[in-house]
Amino acid sequence: MNNLLLQKTEQYLHTLCNKIPNRAVGSPGNIAATDYFRESISPFGWDITSDPLEVMDWNPGIATISIGSETLQVKASPYASGCESVAELICVSTIQDLENSDVNGKNLLLFGDITIEQLMPRNFVFYNPEEHRRIISTLETKKPSCIICATGRNSSLAGGAYPFPLIEDGDFNIPSVYFTDVEGEYLRKFSGEIVKVKSSAARISSRAYNITALKKSGKKRIVITAHIDAKKGTPGAIDNGTGVTVLLLLAELLSDYTGKYSLELVALNGEDYYAVPGQMDFIRKNDGQFGDIALNINIDGQGYFNGKTAFSFNGLSGDFKTVFDEILESSEDAESGPWWPQGDHSIFVQYGVPAVAVSSSWFLSNMENQTITHTEADNLSIVDFRKVLKTAELLSLIIRKMTL
Ligand SMILES: [Zn+2]
């Protein structure tokens, strides 16, 4: 193992996850992270492009619910606007209840069945179940004054957070707050009474960037992606400082590449953000050109200290697959894993491009109940720097072997 590169791996991760406070899309830390990415790649002879994105940053402020002289501390739903709503409390636990209740102008507590899954943002095109769209459109038609969401945990859709925000959507304009299912049970006792919901959350218009580094060679491209953004409130080490670090290491390891394919390293901005702006911009800019992409390799969730690195495949032809199989067989740190759809690799698959998702086997096995991602626990103490460098070295080897 190259000691100098191992030091760089640590340095990249330390800067992305510790020095930069948070990489949520449009925040100062997010802009600092994309600046750092661009600067770190610049010595290695790639053509670098910054694509600006119009986005919304958000300040959570302070949120409370008051019942008479009693006050509960709650959280504003991410990207919700602030409010001061004094109104009757009405409690609803199913879509049918919601459809049959007069909630206009009231403070609406959602609890139970209706809060089991985090609702997909209204304009999220990749995955949006009919039931979620029905809840959102009913809320928009009925116009409660404020929505109070009582939630438990939903690791596969919302990461490890408890409670999780039921609504996380800057395109949804009814103010909302959230707290735990247990607190929700308490508040239900005050159904029909006047309660006050106050939130000083604020939307802030801002900018973000996708950064692309191109090594021009053949007409067909191999596009290697990692999302650079993180949820608010997490250092985003496994999700996805490690993926970004693999891209930075690949920029150096492949600096002399002159093979059959053009290579593109893309720091995508928005995988953990309601409007996925970087992903949408990438799709727009590649409209009609997805056929030129021979392969996508997406790194997300890699480098966990426990277990191996998982390579999951979708739609790879025999030749590409053979190269991966040969390299994985000779590696002690990596193995092939099951396909999983929650990541930027799915965009490529939707456009018929073969894709490889690189992650940690442990997370794939524990996706339903892990309590790490999107929380403060996703910090550098759970990262094995050697595994991160090893993955970059394996990918560099694999890409150099792609000659067919
Ligand atoms: Zn991620």
What's the arrangement of secondary structure elements?
Blueprint: H1 3-19, H2 28-41, E1 47-59, E2 63-67, E3 70-76, E4 83-92, H3 95-100, E5 107-110, H4 130-142, E6 146-151, H5 155-158, E7 176-180, H6 181-187, E8 194-199, E9 202-215, E10 221-227, H7 237-253, E11 262-268, H8 277-285, E12 293-299, E13 309-314, H9 318-329, E14 334-337, H10 345-350, E15 355-360, H11 361-365, H12 385-401
Parallel strand pairs: 4-5, 5-6, 6-7, 10-11, 10-12, 12-15, 13-14
Antiparallel strand pairs: 1-9, 2-3, 2-8, 3-7, 4-8, 9-11, 13-15
Helix pairs in contact: 1-7, 1-12, 7-12, 9-12
Report on this structure.
The chain is of the alpha/beta class. It has two domains: 3-57 and 206-401, Zn peptidases (Aminopeptidase), CATH 3.40.630; 61-200, Glucose Oxidase, domain 1, CATH 3.50.30. It contains twelve helices and 15 strands. The chain has helices at 3-19, 28-41, 95-100, 130-142, 155-158, 181-187, 237-253, 277-285, 318-329, 345-350, 361-365, 385-401, and strands at 47-59, 63-67, 70-76, 83-92, 107-110, 146-151, 176-180, 194-199, 202-215, 221-227, 262-268, 293-299, 309-314, 334-337, 355-360. Strands 1-9-11-10-12-15-13-14 form an eight-stranded mixed β-sheet, with helices on both faces. The protein has a seven-stranded mixed β-barrel with strand order 2-3-7-6-5-4-8. The longest helix has 17 residues, at 3-19. The radius of gyration is 22 Å and the shape is elongated. Zinc ion is lined by residues 227, 239-240, 271-272, 300.
